[in-house]
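User: Please fill in residues for this 280-position structure.
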């Protein structure tokens, strides 16, 4: 999992700066890397200031790590340190999108938050010299942007994605806004074809983890979800690999749940620097 943040939505430092008044999002940037394999996962999310940010239409550099688009391939060169147990992460990720026409989609009623599945179908190469991990397979690239902090708009959201086959991907979004308004999307993204909206499947509650974050996923009525691996289990956020049945097909899905009421609580904010150190 690789995410580039400009105005890191989960940054406790950015949250404190906003509480004092208008804050520059470029002063709170990070490259988040999460590597999952047998044993303990490796996680890096060091926040850096505006002086360590370079960005343009085809590149983003935050500190020593950078992403570059050459017109055909998005390449990320990573030089980070994992936390809380220090370990160097040094490697390269190459993502080659397959043609799939998409456009930004509003996630809230006010149109202040957009999600864009830029490359829902892609071929990915992962080569890390440190820790010596290599992988080839199918990948996915999207983008989120907002005109306000997430916690001002939403109380919860649940998201899941799976490849249906070599040329089809499906994404499910469920959001709950602070005023209680709900939105749900189920989209099929097919190579070379327009995005297709699918009928919503049944919503199922998943067993909660150690922190008690509510988790939901959509799947065919009458089927039972299988948690293949719990990737992240935090005080406001979870990520899992699930075995599901979507429209009659067995799939392996990445599923995420986010509790933004929890995120805003002072005790959660006080814990975040242990996973998100700042090196301005």
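Assistant: Residues filled in for all 280 positions:
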């Amino acid at each position: 999992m690789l995410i580039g943040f400009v105005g890191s939505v989960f940054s406790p430092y950015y949250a404190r700066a906003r509480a004092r008044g208008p804050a520059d999002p470029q002063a709170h940037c990070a490259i988040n890397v999460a590597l999952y394999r047998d044993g303990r996962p490796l996680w890096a999310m060091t926040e850096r200031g505006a002086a360590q940010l370079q960005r343009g239409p085809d590149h983003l550099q935050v500190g020593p790590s950078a992403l570059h688009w050459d017109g055909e391939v998005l390449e990320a060169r990573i030089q980070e340190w994992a936390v809380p147990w220090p370990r160097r992460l040094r490697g390269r990720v190459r993502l080659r999108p397959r043609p799939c026409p998409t456009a930004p989609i509003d996630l809230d009623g006010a149109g202040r938050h957009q999600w864009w599945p830029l490359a829902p179908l892609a071929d990915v190469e992962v080569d890390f010299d440190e820790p010596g991990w290599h992988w080839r397979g199918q990948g996915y690239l999207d983008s989120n942007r907002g005109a306000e902090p997430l916690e001002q708009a939403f109380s919860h959201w649940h998201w899941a994605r799976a490849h249906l086959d070599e040329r089809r991907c499906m994404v499910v979004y469920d959001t709950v806004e602070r005023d209680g308004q709900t939105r749900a999307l189920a989209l099929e993204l097919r190579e070379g074809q327009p995005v297709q909206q699918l009928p919503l499947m049944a919503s199922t509650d998943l067993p909660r983890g150690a922190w008690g974050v509510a988790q939901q996923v959509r799947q065919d009525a009458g089927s039972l979800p299988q948690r293949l691996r719990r990737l992240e289990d935090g005080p406001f956020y979870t990520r899992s690999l699930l075995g599901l049945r979507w429209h009659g097909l067995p799939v392996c899905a990445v599923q995420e749940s986010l509790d933004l009421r929890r995120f805003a609580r002072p005790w959660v904010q006080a814990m975040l620097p242990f996973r998100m150190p700042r090196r301005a």
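For context: The first strand starts at residue 2 and ends at 6.
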